[in-house]
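ERR on first pass: missing label on line 2. Operator R.T. fixed the label and resubmitted. Corrected input:
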Amino acid sequence: MISSSPDFKENVAAALHDPQLQRALAGVAPGLAARRAAARSGLPEFEALRERGREIKNHTLAHLDAYLEEYERKVTELGGVVHYAATAQDARDAILRICRDAGARLVTKGKSMISEEIGLNHHLEQAGLEVVETDLGEYIIQLRGETPSHIIAPAIHLTQDQVEADFRKVHTKLPAGRMLTEPAQLVAEARQILREKFLAADVGITGANFLIAETGTSVIVTNEGNGDLTQSLPRVHIVIASIEKMVPTLEDVSTLVRLLARSATGQEISTYTTFSSGPRRAGDPDGPQAYHVVILDNGRSDLLATDFREVLRCIRCGACMNHCPVYQSIGGHAYGWVYPGPIGAVLTPALIGVRGSADLPNASTFCGRCEQVCPMKIPLPGLMRAWREKDFDAGGTPLLYRAGLAAWAFFARRPRLYNLAARLGIPLLHLASRRGALHHLPVARGWTKYRDLPAPQGRTFQALWADTEAGVPR
Amino acid sequence: MSVTGASARTAVLSKIRQALQATGSDSARRAAVAERIASPPAPLVPERAQRPREASRALFRTFLEGQSATVVEVGSAAEVPAAIGRYLRSTNMPLRVRVGGDGYLAALPWSTEPALERLDGPAEGEDAVGLSHAAAAVAETGTLVLASGADNPVTLGYLPETHVVVVEEKDLAGGYEGAWEKIRARFGRRGMPRTVNFISGPSRTADIGGELVMGAHGPRRLCVILVRDAGV
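pass 2 clean. output:
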């Protein structure tokens, strides 16, 4: 996927002034946060499970090569084929080759963020294949030629009216006067259209939430059951998964399943969790005749040797974006690449380079909620800070910003001067203010354009601190 | 030019080893992996997954009903055909079910419900009702565990509009780990059927305006028939 992350600031301005988007965002994300909180309080062991989940992923990442080999051995034993892909191009080529070998014309797809990352649909369509997304949200954005704006709710940026308009535009074989004013009517229509595709497809492609080394199993989690129809009806099932999806055993995956849906949607468990091991067995009356797993690296192994290894624990629940004040104001598309929200702000610089995406780790209030809710305890604010430092070291930070930082550092290293400046600054800024607020600041126009800066008043922090230390009552 | 096949495998795995500062012959790390798979450390099983039988059954039922499934308890296997008939009549569904070769289901006294027609084999697009026999069930989240095969074709749970699943109380585990024990007992350690399906309600979506709608692609209705153990 081509990145528009370098245009982050323009993207944000557009998103903030898009009334449809703002209406759609107001509707969904806050509800997801409340539901997560309810699910968490319903399971007293939740915090302890997070710690277990973190340990499982850390152990697996530290032995990733050995687990991948073990997993591959089991898949092969069951009659499946494992393909490794170092780059997005390698993965696209491997999948196209499998489709061609199968003589495929129609490909159905379950939801997969990795397939977005490698730009799979475009590649297959260029080669003459029909590719149909079957997750309802993905189907809707495919009709619109858009990309997902949330990793588990891809069409979260759209309102019901927009979906109705799209269905009327595209489903032209259906009567023009049909009722489509209720979500249930829209869902029923999509069900009818997609059912034909499920039954006619030659190849089904799904992602994987987990790969299990013990049994050579790929796991998908859905609420719609679209992944199951995608993988059970066609002749060929292709799984596309990145290297960090690996877990050792069924016990480990059980721990992660206990965390995933509760963190994502606040459900106790998603409606369908499906464990697939190889192609159909002798005597099986249904299921695919061939089973392929494409394992993608695409820059992830580079992270293993760095502090950013922690981000590879991510199980893609979306809790960080559901709790992020920045995501909830601008939606997912503004981030400009596949993964939005706090996880995207850390992952995007890692996978496509910080030079084109430095605005992402900078677009954070560091409120810390993402880290608080992350089931895998990924220190997202700390990692965003690490990207800011790298960007600074690489000369990416704008000049005015650097000058400001340098000026601050000059004073910060000279405490007496700092104190003096603070003491003089308070009355000066107070003089410049009207009714205790600053409406215009020459160096912070970005701030004062949207809100007033409260003018400092009273004594300095250092002075108050010294009093507290000395036991002076306030 | 893309790299595929054996060279891609070597490239990816050696990059990982390099990043982890490990070597290919690092036998201690391989041994750790083999050991972890052979005897995983004791998992943290939540309290709710370890409750006594009565409480466990109540939890199973409560969660499934909360997830928009219907739960019917019957006292013995002999009552199952009539219970299926009653459920289908109550939902205005045709008295015709698609069912695999499952021995337990085949042995039920179908003559008690003569109007109920059974079609054999995997599901087809037009089937209205699929009937499956769960390999296990899990109380902690109200979850059915189905094992695919000729006995219980996987499509029965996804193509028909209504899915009826028979669960024997003896197969109800408190937590996921208990269900895996049952799967391992049947398919061997490190063995699995082609698919194991955890099913915790009818198909649903909230992709349009965040409003929950049943029957996205899979069944609109899920009916669970729980067969109580005799003498319990």
